[in-house]
Every structure is written in C-alpha cells, then in structure tokens.
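Exercise (ungraded).
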Amino acid sequence: MRRLLLFAAAALLAACATPQKTRESQVKEDHVSEAWRHQRPEPGEPVPLKVPTFWRTRLDNGLTVIVSERHDLPIVSVDVALRSGSGADPVGKAGLAQLTYQLLLEGAGDRDAAALDRAFADLGTSPTLDAAADGGYVGVEVLKENLDAAMALLADVVLRPRFQPASFQHRKEQALSALAYQVGNPTYLGFEAMAATLYGEQHPYGSPGSGTPESVTSLTLEDARAFWTRAAVPDQAAIIFAGDIVPEQAVALAEKHFGAWKGKGTSQPTPRAPTVARRSQIVVVPKPGLQQTLILVGRPGIEAGNADEYALDLANAVFGGLFGSRLNMNLREDKGYTYGARSSLDPRRGVGPLIAYTQVRADVTGPALVEVFNELEGLASRPISEEELEGAREGKIRSIPGWFETVGALASAGARLFWLDLPLDHYQRLLDGLQNASLDQVREKARAYLAPETMQIVLVGDPEIIRTQVEPLGLGDLVVREPPTMVGTP
Amino acid sequence: MPWIARTALSILTLLAAAPAAASQTQESEETVLSIPFEKYTLDNGLEVILSVDRKLPVVAVNVWYHVGAFHEQPGRTGFAHLFEHMMFQGSKHIEDDAHITLLQQIGATDVNGTTNFDRTNYFETVPAHHLETALWLESDRMGFLLDAMSEEKLENQREVVKNERRQRTDAAPYGLAREAAWQALFPLPHPYFGSVIGSMEDLDAATMEDVHNFFETWYAPSNATLAIVGDIDVEKTKELVEKYFGSLPSRAKPQAPVVEDVALDREVVIRMDEPVATLPMVIMYWHSPRIFTEGDATADIVANALGTGKASRLHQRLVYEKKLVQSVSAYQYSLGAQSVFGIQAVARPGKSTDDIVAEIDAVLAELRQTGVSPEEMQRARNRFETRRVLGLQRVGGFGGKADMLQSYNHFLGDPGMLAWDLARYEQVTTDETRAFARDVLAPDRRVVLHAVPPAQGGQGR
C-alpha cells in the first residue's frame, strides 16, 4: 500500500508544477521545440482499484450459489460448475470427462440435440462447456429476460441428460475425429508430450483433457454414466451468476430449478505433487518438414494457495509472462527468431505446470534454445532489478479491473474459486500479495523455480534439423516420442 | 501486430462470434441499443470520437488509420501489416520497444494492433488515470514515427512477420489451403490477393523507402480517427487530445485506389496436398455484397441458418445424418471492397471431400427452394441481439465499443449507426434469403478447394 500512496503524492506534485500551454502557442512552435514530448506524462490521481467481489451461500441440498453483481447492462452469465474435471479421468480413460460433458448437449429432458439447440437459440444463446483439469462447467450468457428459461434448460442438461447409446457413439466418433485432427497439430503434440514428461501418463495431469486415440477408443457409455453419477451431486456443484442479478434472485432461481437435486459425493482427490527432477533428456516429437520448431521448456510449478504464488507470479512476469519480458524481448525483438515467446504459470488444486514456449523458424532451433537457457541462467547472473519488478508489479495490479470487463470473465473467475477452494476475497488477497512481495523473494523464487537444470525440454519439429542443431548443445540426450497414431476407424 | 496480431484469417473466426446485429424483441420494442458519443475534427483533419462509460475505472484508446491491405502497391503484399509492426518500434520521443512494455507496466489490457483488408487499428485499455500516457504514445507514432526509423528495425520486424506468416500460414493446419482458395477468388492485381499477411518474396522486397512513403501517404492525421471510450471527463479529454494531436502537421487526405470488382464466371476447383493437418478439408468461397450494403444482412442470416449451432442445416446433414464431417461452418466475411461468403468443413477420417461437396450442394439446393424459414430467421435475430449487447461490455479491445464506433464511422461516416445496423435484420425476408442462395451462392461462380493430407489418400491435382 505504501508504494501506491507515494505514487499518488508524486502525481499531485507534478500536476501543480505543469501549467497547460495554450493551443495557439503550441501551433506556432516547430515540432522540434515541443520538448515536453520527451517527458512521459505524469499519471493522474490513481483511481481506486476495483477487484471483482463474490457473494456465496449454500442451499439445503448442499448446492453452492455464487453471485458477482454487475448492473450496467441487462445480461447475466450463469455457469453450473462441478468439481470433477479431466483430472478425475480414471487411469487409461483420459478424455472421459470431456466426452461426458459434451454428451450433456446431445439430448436432455424432452429434447434431442437439435431440439435442445433450438431451445437455447430461441433465447438468443448457445451453451458453452468445458472440462478443465480440476473441474468442468456448462453455462450460458443471456439477456436477463431470458434467464429463467435458460435455467430451466440448464437444469435439464445437468439433472436429466439422456446419455443415449446412439448419442454416445456419435460423440465418441467426433472425439476420435477431433483427435485425428489434433495429432497433426504441433501445439497439441507439444503440450501432450510435456504433460507426460512432467507428470507421467498415469498422473491426473499427465494426459491431455481430450485424451489420446487409445484412451478414447476404450471409453464406453457405462464409463460416462458412472462418471456423471459421481460428478453431478449438489454438494460438489456450484451455480455461478454474474451480471444484472442480486443474491436473492439468484438463490430463488437456483432453488426453483436445482432445489430438488439430491445426492452426496466426495471431492476429486488432490493430485499428488510430482517430483522435480534434473533434466537428463530432451523429448523430440518428429514432424518432418515442419517450417517451425515448437520449443517447450517447463517443470512442475505450484498449487493454488501456495505461499510462493505472488512472488513467483512476478518473477515469471519479468522472465516471460509479459510482452516486454526478457524472453520475448530477446527471441522476438532482438533476434527475430519468432513471432512471440512467453511463459505461463498455471496453479491448480494440485501442482500445476510452469511452461515457457515459442515457435521459431526451423533453421534457428539450436540458437533459439540456447537463448531460452541464457535467459533462465540470467535470472541468477543478472538478478531481477528493482525497476523490472516494479514495472511487473504495477502492471499486474493495475490490470486487474481490465481483466473483468465482462460477465463471462466474472463467472469464470467464480467457477475457478469453487474448483480450487479459494476464498471469496481471493482477488483482494492477490492484490495484497502482489503488493507485498519483496525484491529478495521475487529473485529467490525466480532462481528456485526457473533453475535451468530442472527445466524439461520438448521439441516438435523436423527431426533431422533438431538432431543437427540441438545434439551438440549438451542439454541432454535426444529421445524420440512418436506422435500418437489413430487406432482404426471409429 | 505484436503479441497476437490479427490478420484477415483470424478475423474470420472472430466475426462468427461478434458480427452484426440485432433486433428488438417483441417485448422490448421501444428499447433501442445505442452508444452515446461525440464526434469532432481537429484542424489537421484528425477525427475524434469520445464516449463516456463509467462502469470501470478504465479507458480505451483506439486509433483507426483508414488504410489496409487494399491500399498496398503491386509487389508489396503484406506491407500494410508489416508497417503496423513498425508502429510498435519507437518514435522520436518514445524509446525503441518501449510502447508495449510501458503500457503493460501501467496496467493496460487489450494492447494490440490489427491489420485487415480495409483498415489498420491500434488500441489499448488503460487505467483511467493513465489516459494521458496512452495519448502521448499514440500521438508520437502518428506524428514522429520516421524520426526513429532504421534499417535494423525494419530487418528485425521483417523476420518477426515472416515468422508470423510461418505460424499462421505455412506451418498451420490448412493455412496454405485457405490462402490458395482466397487467391483464386481475388486474382492479381486485386489488392485483396495477398491475404493481408502477404508473400515471403514481397516481405523481403520491402524497403525503407516503402516505409517512408507509406507513412507519408496513409498515416496522415486526416486519414485517421481517434476514439476514446471509458471513464473520462469529456472537457479535460478534449484538452489533452488538442495538446497531443492538435499540433501534428496536416497532410492531404489520401485518395483510395479505384479497384474494379472481380467476378467468377465459372466454378474454380482446386485440389491440393495438405502438408500440416491430418484430416481433409473443403473450402467454398463466393463473392458477396459489401459490408453494410444491400444483401450483407441477408448473408449473415443465411450463414446463421446454415452453420450456427447443432440444429443448423449443414450441421444436421453433414455431422448428424451423413457423419461425413468433424466440423462445418458458414460465415459472411463483410469487407469494404467485396465481401466473401465462406463454407468450411473438416472431414472425418477416411471421408471423401467430393462426398462432402455433394452434401453441401444438396443443402444449398434445398435452401434455394425453401429460403430461411421465419423461425430460423427469428433465432438468428435473437442470437445477434444477445451478441450485440454482450459486445457492449468491453470499452476497447478487438470488437469492443471503440471498435464498433470506429467501424460505423469508417464504413458509413457516422459512429451512431448501431440502431440502423440492428434494424437491417428485421427487414430480411424469406424471399430475399432464397434469392441470395440462388444468385450469390451460385454453384457455377465459386471457388471450391479440396485439401487432402497425403496419408488420407493424397490429393490429385
């Protein structure tokens, strides 16, 4: 807090010291003499920070209701969120959560897939859904006048899905077809290989949420029914309302449409923390002839609620989290190797990954990888400066209101609070945590979590170019991981 | 642009989520959506649009230069977009590479620039007390870009853009296929030929002289519009705009090139090997009515009935009944010179693109008979209305309120055309959709491209 107050004082002084020029005098001046343009303007008086706020209650059946109010437009985003996501896929059944959530929209209550789609379309909307690592949701964004009718449809979808054999078969074929597409996509291949490298394929976070051709082929309708029976219980569910609605209305709608929902479940267990190993190998996913190489460099990061989060978040921002980060400025703006390079931290219920990635033109694969490691090593040899930290800190803090312009963003944030068991004042804590992280802490977390020898490497690209350029670097032995192959036609 | 540049190709997907329009529902006939604004022009010709929105303490600053790929010279495809990159490399009073870094350090969101066929825009959403910093940055590159230009910067950004082209086109699933279909629709010398991103050869050919000429011609204040939307004090903002932009020298408003419409007189069929993706794809393109002209709204309605949602006609027939495709979409890509109506379908493994074309044609043949039904039409209007209201949530960014005001201003000369835009959809009739399917979506005046991976049977040419 101290820092922001000082900031305000400086702004006030500046405002007093700078008289406005009149327009006439400006026009007469030659541009060369507009010396004031050399000076970055002083900011005005800082506006109060506005972090998203959430209200929460539980119904008698255990269902959580979360509300975030925003009344400027007559719209509401409503999500039904469940604490079972792709991390709850049984071993060997990767892709089950995603397929099951998708199956919800293939028929529910009195309606088949087309009738359901038309019913939502009559309300001006299409539902969205996703199964993320720690939970899933199905939701809509509607004009307020359509909210009650949309809730009735969502209740059908969540409480009365049809799960018919033909629909299951259709969804499974579509999922396999989507995978046939993905196995040609370098980005899918890279993140799939990195997840397996960091966690092992048996770990809940070790496979992609969409599964693999082999795992999806093994899925049955009984698997989907069993998944949904475990997942769809009111005490592991929340309805999140964001927008032009007040808590009383939200509770009344939740009671009306979901009040009769019964059942008890247990939360998806928190995945065990993977071991952080020294790198011994480089994983190469061959894609002969590809004009670019996808470089991924990563390691297990942190779980949500870890005390290191704020300092590490700032360290990552300086390293690769922002456009002006060391990584992007080096690989893009200095070397011209890439269209962009960045790194991201993904705290989950369990330990989520910390991954830096970039796509570089194939003929600079080796030099680009060297520069990524130069920047990792630079966190020790050129410690993060006060100036770098303050830029990242101010940027992160001040950008919070801008990230929550939409009711959709508010609802997503509410769902994340629920999945990760985060406190309602999470964003205020985030603000305080970012505010209070010291330079020493940020430097220490940078060195600890971005230590070069613990960073695993995955490369997707032309195997011959990779062999020629990367083998001599001494970063590890190259190990080929063939892209998954499709197992027969569905 | 910088972080996530958006060229025409990515705009296609965005348009599907944020296109035009909406109607009033029967219950709320009297509520007409509008965005309050004030528009005026500085002495040097710069247009200014101000709009107050106090929902959050943020302000969107958004500059449209009325120049895009349409205005490029022959042999310089991709130049408008390459130039956009140069606008982030510093100017007389702004250090190299400082622009985005500084904005991110003060908490800006939605920082980007995008180039499409008709215009180039630059935007940032800043905390309200940093408005002046955003104006300082935008005015400096409008007035003093060339003072800090250098060969080294051009070389660097040339490489960045070539990487962007690899990432979006050469090494992306279906990137080369989309480009080939597009080029068949707009053969040289049509300026849309280059697909905004341009060719490697033309990017290599760009010179410092090109940079200077392009700036002097097209980046005149008289060819730009500045929109400021958000938590602002209007009078104070006007003073700031005058301070930062008022003294920039005036230059003549440039004349846009005169380009003849192109038309196909036959069906152009292209068969090519798909080098990246693993599933076959079909692309169909037709020339369609220009943005905001007669038939443009009809095209949106037809696209919605054909391709939006599981109950849409193409989805029902190709995904559910025939089980031929993994995905299918239809869209009207509204542009200033000539628009494009597109249908794309990704095959399921092992399915033939010829069978897919036949089924799409069957759906189109039926549409020529039935037209879009009143029920389908109403659902489309409902979707458009909801999307448009949702679109009013963001003051800036790609497709936010500032872009909406700019778009109406750019194409119609008046930022306040939202209500008019929405009303267009009320007037579309079933007969018009039938005529559209017959006259615009004609089977003998289109491009059909089959992109087939070698592993899926290769593809004949």
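Further reading is listed at the end of the chapter. For now, observe: Chain B touches chain A through 92 residues (CB under 8 Å). Chain B has two domains: 8-23+34-245, 268-456.
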